[in-house]
Amino acid sequence: MRKNKIYLFFVIIFACTLQSCRTMKPTEPRVVGTIEIKDVYQYMMVNQPDFKTMNISKMNLSLKMGGQSYNVGGFIRMVKDSAIIISIQPLFGIEMVRALILPNEITVVDRINSQYYVSTAEQLKELTGIDFEFNTLQALLSNQLFLPGIEKEKITEKMFDVGIFPPDSYEMKANKNSLPLHHSFIINKHLQLEKAMMIDKKNPQSLTYDYADFLKVNAYDFPHKMTITVTDGRKSERIGLTIGKVDFDVPVNMSFSIPAKYTKADITNISF
Fold first, then answer.
1. Domain with 53 in it: what CATH number?
2. What are the pLDDT digits (tens) for 164-214?
3. pTM confidence score
4. Domain range spanning residue 213?
């Protein structure tokens, strides 16, 4: 029970999505629109956002957990490959939770209970079974292709098998057997990353990001809606992220402080 509680908490904080996936079926023809399968990877990589900072200054999270529905606001600020700040604000811009995610450490400030929690990536994995990776979270939030443990610059076309995903999309499946999860990406006919799926090879758990409502931001098509469902084989929880405003390569305020009166709490006792 404790592990499930912590797992769901971090899914909410990181705005992750889990939902069931469809199996790719071989089909003909070999072309969707005018793009041949052999060219999908290159076109998709060109279409991905390339940035140094990302600022989602307006967003809304809709959560459905345990039969209850919640709607909260907040923001996400990111310095690529360095840090991510996520703020959750339920009412009138009053912050309830702020999380600072670094490549090897996560700090969560609970303003309701005047507490804060600190966890390393290794501790988080031990507590939840999640092999947390900064690069994966960064990619999911910014609509990017990724493979755990591999830097983006080192990801190559040979690491994927590409096929048709009916009726008019493509599916890119990671072919690295050493990965603990099955990784699959759905690319729509406009060559936008529409879905990222991670399915545990040993346990009935999966993680899926669905992207929709693509709008031009700078020169990129960026999704303004992410639908989120978390499942562990027994139950599922759904989260929706709607983005009101996002900017790339603008100055971002990454200040993160913990009031002196706040006490450090055991992360196993998170009680939001």
1. 2.50.20.10
2. 999 889 999 998 766 777 899 999 988 999 999 888 877 777 888 999 999
3. 0.84
4. 11-267
